[in-house]
Amino acid sequence: MSAHPRGVAVGFDPLLERVRRFIQRERGGGYAVAHFDVMEDGHAGLTYGFDLCDAKGEAAGRYVLKLAPAGVARRGNTDVYRQAPLLRALKGAGVPVPDVPWASPDEEALGVPFIIMERLPGRVFMSWQPHESFPRDPVRLRDIWLQAANLLAKVHRVDWRRHLAGWEEPRPLSLELDRWTTVLRHAQEPEWHIAGTSLGSALAACMPDGDPVGLVHGDFQPGNILYENERANAVIDWELASIGAQGLDVGWLLMMLDPLAWHPDWRPVAPVGKEELLAAYRRAGGPDEARLEWYQALAQYRLGSIACLNVKLHRTGKRTDPIWERFALSIPSLFARGLDLVTLANSS
């Protein structure tokens, strides 16, 4: 889930022509780009899909292009290129992620930095509105979530000092908290800002220390996992990844399950309990995390702040996406449940 404006890409037709020229330089003049279009799943912003055909017109690969936003400083999730060394390292470490055959940190080829990844088979499980191809049977849906817990453990077991040496320095929790405090300022409704500020202050007053540090996906949930025939196939959308407290990911996943976090009209389809999910994560080798109530509260603060920003962008027409009106329903409950969880964290 993007937390910042993505800016504006180069125009569609000029972009397509640039991609064609780039592919022909890289693969030869006989290759053609086909079915170039904006990706639909996940409200992906500056993300495009395309196919390659060889000189005989036969399929030669399917790809996903992610662009950096034009006119925006390259840092954090707007630094698209930083995902290239990350994904390549994870691929080498055995984590199921897309291969990255092409990437560039400069603007020469496509007008902005970019990465081009292989397009793996499968479909994400959009937790609030699962595609009709997914089952509705609770037992099979439960397995989708337990597979996510297993994959999260695999991500968290990556030896980041070995595989990601030099990629990024660990981010202190204080900086993580400050980041979303800045985003919260975009709240249009005064009560949202008041509730969010109260939660942020409560989190800052009882910050954990000494929890496991490692690779953090930043938005780990079934909506960022490709499932093929109900089997988890790959983890995607690494734009919020960092090195930091891995409780960030665990708390985020627990937030998705918690019915008290959500408005009754906008709750994820998640027929699995907290303890069952955590047991699956730990059986798969996920590290023990302390004070998970605090980390879930932080997740609720993060998503509530993200929703405040994206609702503003939608309502002002700067980046129209009606789905954020659905998330707006849950902003009060995200912050309120977060405050309850901080209280639980302090009493445990």
From TrEMBL:
InterPro entries: ACAD10_11_N, AGP_Transferase, Aminoglycoside_PTrfase, Kinase-like_dom_sf. Residues 58-295 form the Aminoglycoside phosphotransferase domain. Pfam families: APH. This is Phosphotransferase family protein. The lineage of its organism: Bacteria, Pseudomonadati, Pseudomonadota, Alphaproteobacteria, Hyphomicrobiales.
